[in-house]
Specification:
With about 425 residues, the protein is mostly helical. It is about 65% helix and about 5% strand. It contains 14 helices and four strands. It has a four-stranded mixed beta sheet with strand order 1-2-4-3, with helices on both faces.
Length: about 425
C-alpha cells in the first residue's frame, strides 16, 4: 500500500475508533429499561406502516442523492478550482469569499432535491407553510450559512498558513468553543429568525411542568412554546441552550393535538435530558473526537492537495469541506449509538417520573402516525442514521415498565414511585 494512502486510512480508522471509545466512555451505565419484544403490527395498522414506508424510503434515496450532489460539487471545485481560489494574493479574503460562494453553490445545487422533498411532505400533510414562506426561509438560511462559512473559511486558512503541520490542533479547540457558543447563543440569536418563541403562559401545562421539574429536582430553565404549526403538522419537543439560555421548547402542535398526560410525558423526557446533563455531554463527546477527526481531515487534504504552496491558498476551503464531510459521516454514525442510548434513558426517566406507561405507549403510537414515521425501520438504517430508538423499542420500554420488568434499572428520579407491577392493558391495538 502507498505510504500516503496508508496514513490516510490509519487516520480515518483512528477517528472512528476514538469516536467508538468516546461512546463507550460516555454512554449511560444505568437508567435504561430493557424493552419488551413487541411487533409493529400489534400497534399500527398495515396501512399506517405502508404509508410511512412509502413516504420515508424514497426520502432516504433523495437524501443520499443530495449527499452525492454536494460531494460532486466539492470534487468538481477541487479538480477544476476557479482562479480566485488558487491565487496566492490576499488568501484570507479569498478564503472568506470561497466559504460564502461554496455555501451558495451547494445550496443551489441541492435546491431541486429540497423542493421535491418538500412537495412529498405536502402530499402527506406534514407541511403547512406556503412556497413563498419556504423560499424566504431558504434565503435566510443561505445568508446565515454564507456568513458563517465565510468566517470559518477565513479562520481555517489562517490557521493552515500559520501552522501548516499542526493547524488541526487549534482548529479542534475552535470547533469545541464554537460549538459551545452556538449552543449558548443559538436559542436567543438564531432560532428566533425562523420561529416565534413564547414563554409558556400560566395555566395547567406550565404548572405541570414546574411540578414535574420540582419532583425531578432539576432546574429546567425557561419553557417555551414554538409556533411550529406555521410550517408543519408534526409534533415534537426538545431541550437546548447552555447556562442562562437553557430551555425546554414545546411545539404548539404537541400542545394542541395531544392530551395533557401525553404532554407531561414529553416534558418529563426533556427533564431527563436536563437531569443527566445531556447537552454538556454532547460537548464532551465533541471535545474527545474533534482532534483526531480534524487530523484525519488533514491527511485527506494532503492527499488531495499535495502541493504545500496550494495548501496556503483558499483551495483549502473546498478541500476541507469535503474532508470534514467524509470524516464527520463516519463519526456521526458512531455517535448515533450514544444518542440512541441517551434518548432511551430519557424515555425511562419519563416513565419513572410520571408512572404513566399507558399514555406513554399511546403517545408513541400517535406521534409516529402524525409524523408519518416508520415504526420499525431496518436495523442497518437505524445504525447509520437514527438518533432515537425505533418506535417499537420505545413502545417496548413502556410495555416492560407496565409489566413491572425492572431489568436495566439501577436508579430512578427523585420523587418517582414504584410502578404498578400489574399490567393495565393488553399488548396490541
Amino acid at each position: 500500500m502507498d505510504r500516503g494512502l496508508r496514513r490516510v486510512s490509519l487516520a480515518l480508522v483512528a477517528a472512528v475508533v476514538v469516536a467508538e471509545a468516546a461512546v463507550l466512555l460516555l454512554r449511560p451505565r444505568s437508567g435504561i429499561i430493557d424493552p419488551a419484544q413487541v411487533s409493529a403490527t400489534s400497534y399500527f395498522s398495515r396501512a399506517q406502516i405502508d404509508r410511512a414506508r412509502d413516504f420515508r424510503r424514497p426520502n432516504l434515496a433523495l437524501f443520499a442523492l443530495s449527499l452525492g450532489v454536494e460531494a460532486g460539487v466539492l470534487v468538481l471545485v477541487l479538480r477544476r478550482p476557479p482562479g480566485f481560489v488558487r491565487a496566492p494574493e490576499r488568501p484570507l479574503l479569498r478564503a472568506a469569499a470561497a466559504g460564502a460562494a461554496l455555501t451558495a453553490a451547494l445550496s443551489m445545487a441541492g435546491l431541486p432535491i429540497a423542493a421535491i422533498l418538500r412537495q412529498r411532505s405536502i402530499d402527506v400533510g406534514l407541511t403547512t407553510q406556503s412556497w413563498g414562506g419556504w423560499a424566504v426561509d431558504q434565503v435566510k438560511a443561505l445568508g446565515i450559512g454564507a456568513a458563517l462559512s465565510a468566517g470559518g473559511g477565513l479562520l481555517f486558512v489562517a490557521l493552515a498558513r500559520r501552522m501548516p503541520r499542526w493547524w488541526w490542533a487549534p482548529a479542534s479547540g475552535a470547533v469545541v468553543v464554537l460549538g459551545a457558543a452556538f449552543l449558548f447563543a443559538g436559542p436567543v440569536l438564531l432560532d428566533p429568525i425562523f420561529n416565534k418563541f413564547t414563554p409558556l403562559p400560566d395555566g395547567r401545562t406550565r404548572a405541570s411542568v414546574l411540578e414535574l421539574a420540582h419532583k425531578a429536582g432539576v432546574k429546567v430553565g425557561q419553557v417555551y412554546e414554538v409556533d411550529a404549526s406555521r410550517r408543519t403538522t408534526a409534533a415534537n419537543a426538545y431541550v437546548t441552550g447552555l447556562g442562562a439560555t437553557k430551555r425546554v421548547v414545546i411545539y404548539d402542535t404537541l400542545l394542541k393535538d395531544f392530551s395533557p398526560e401525553e404532554v407531561d410525558l414529553v416534558v418529563a423526557h426533556e427533564l431527563g435530558h436536563v437531569h443527566y446533563s445531556d447537552v454538556p455531554r454532547g460537548l464532551l463527546f465533541l471535545l474527545v473526537v474533534a482532534p483526531v477527526s480534524l487530523y484525519a481531515a488533514k491527511r485527506l487534504i494532503e492527499a488531495w492537495v499535495p502541493d504545500p504552496a496550494a495548501r496556503r491558498t483558499a483551495l483549502m476551503v473546498p478541500a476541507g469541506a469535503l474532508a470534514l464531510g467524509i470524516v464527520s459521516f463516519g463519526v456521526s454514525t458512531v455517535s448515533n449509538q450514544l444518542s440512541r442510548a441517551i434518548e432511551a434513558r430519557a424515555d425511562t426517566y419519563a416513565l419513572q417520573l410520571t408512572d404513566a406507561p399507558e399514555p406513554f405507549i399511546g403517545f408513541e403510537r400517535r406521534i409516529t402516525v402524525q409524523n408519518v414515521a416508520d415504526p420499525d425501520p431496518p436495523g442497518w438504517l437505524t445504525f447509520l442514521l437514527a438518533t432515537h430508538p425505533p418506535t417499537v423499542e420505545r413502545i417496548g420500554a413502556g410495555v416492560a415498565f407496565q409489566r413491572g420488568e425492572r431489568t436495566g434499572l439501577t436508579d430512578r428520579p427523585r420523587g418517582a414511585s414504584d410502578p404498578d407491577p400489574a399490567p393495565r392493558t393488553r399488548e396490541g391495538s
